[in-house]
């Protein structure tokens, strides 16, 4: 069995953003030389997510509105976590959007369902953060 590991780095200039990282994950898969197996992609920070959904701008706007309803950033004082920091909402947003995805690898390709793409969800940006890509198979 082969094994591959890589960290992808992101420094998002805004507090929140959704970034399609499918091309980077595909590049990792090519580098790994693995034809059949599994890819794990996970955020290495507790205020960012990795998830799978559609790359459609209306949907991305809907996520922003929905997440702000569930866990509004302001007022910062509404959260007990915000003692000396201001990112309680980002922890909550990360929880609901998820930590990781697993995608099957078949004949050297990411074996997606229709319209599926992998996203990095940043909820407390303006600093360097990592995503882990781990691929196992043969
Ligand atoms: Zn925090």
Quick rundown:
The protein is 25% helix and 38% strand. The chain contains 3 helices and 8 strands. The strands form 2 sheets. Strands 1-8-3-5-6 form a 5-stranded antiparallel sheet, covered by helices on one side.
How is the secondary structure organized here?
Elements: E1 2-11, E2 17-20, H1 22-32, E3 37-43, E4 48-53, H2 57-70, H3 88-97, E5 100-106, E6 109-110, E7 117-122, E8 128-137
Antiparallel strand pairs: 1-8, 2-7, 3-5, 3-8, 4-7, 5-6
Residues 81, 85, 87, 91 line the site of zinc ion.
Describe the structure.
The structure is a single chain. The N and C termini lie close together (5 Å). The protein has one domain: YjbQ-like (Jelly Rolls), CATH 2.60.120.460. The protein has three helices and eight strands, in the order ββαββααββββ. It is α+β, with helices and mostly antiparallel strands and 138 residues long. Helix content is 25%, strand content 38%. The strands form two sheets. A five-stranded antiparallel sheet has the order 1-8-3-5-6, covered by helices on one side. Strands 2-7-4 form a three-stranded antiparallel sheet. Bound molecules: zinc ion. Residues 81, 85, 87, 91 line the site of zinc ion (ZN).
